[in-house]
Amino acid sequence: MILMRSPFDWADRTRSQQDIAAEITAGLRGVIGVRTFAIQPNSLGIRGAGQGLTVALVGDDYGRLADVATVLVEKLEADPRFGQIRLGYDTTQPQLFVEIDRARAEDLGVEIDGLGEAFQAVLDGSTVGTIFLDDDSYDIDLVATTDPVNDPGDLERIFVTSDDGQMVPISSFASLTERAVAPELTREAQSRSVSITAALTPELALGDALSEVQAMADDLLGEDMRLVPLAEAATLGETSSGLVFTFAIAIAVVFLVLSAQFESFVSAVIVLATVPLGLACAIFALLLTGGSLNVYSQIGLVLLVGIMAKNGILIVEFADQLRERGRSVR
Fold this sequence. Notes:
Blueprint: H1 17-28, E1 53-59, H2 62-77, E2 82-87, E3 93-100, H3 102-107, H4 115-123, E4 126-133, E5 136-142, E6 159-161, E7 167-169, E8 174-181, E9 186-188, E10 191-200, H5 206-218, E11 226-230, H6 231-241, H7 243-262, H8 265-272, H9 274-289, H10 295-324
Antiparallel strand pairs: 1-10, 1-11, 2-10, 3-8, 4-5, 6-7, 9-10
Helix pairs in contact: 7-8, 7-10, 8-10, 9-10
């Protein structure tokens, strides 16, 4: 069940969206038997955003991935900087498994070939053909006429013929067990995956949280496993890796435009000389106010380059006009 609430007008509330989500999560955490969590949508439209930190353990075996993920969840729950932790692998769906002892079946003279199809017909039915009537087609299903098999004891009343013509109960060489499996199996990067989602407190930024989880997982992951960031964490990694390249392209484009406008490389260098100082002041402001270098602050830094270049253009243009009127530099 999903409940949605539109935010109040900014003038009518004194709490932030994060404070409201934290209060809702804390209040619903005490409800036994119900798993609830509050999602805060973001303005960038990132898939899976608003849920905090989301990562996936990727490997070759779901069972081993689930075991490692369970231990990792216990470590995260012990850290008070993380909020509610959710494991995306729940074995809540019962499933029947049929295991055949091939050596025992051979000793009893039971042919293994075709035994799988026979089991399917007995347990769930099997499609053996199709009949066409006018423009419609209908499947022909082969089903057992006995009662359905849903208990290991039911195998004792199902018999197959051995090589010498005797009737052998299936229970003498096959076993039926019920196990709990996950109702949905996910994949990431074309590999089996188990996802973990952790809500974040104001004490821990998204990038720092990802680093903490990676450090915790280093001692748990096997050689065939790896940790993959998802949702906002993946977007942050992509933008952070291309941040230097983006700034380099932005400064190069601004420099070329300024050089063409002023018809002088010296004036362009003078304008761009203010950019490092402005970026340094922006980083200092983030550290002073306790902010983090996230997607939004990176966009702001790119915009800051353009704003400072615009202000520099006005100042240099005004200075050039004064010099053309005969005013000295001093």
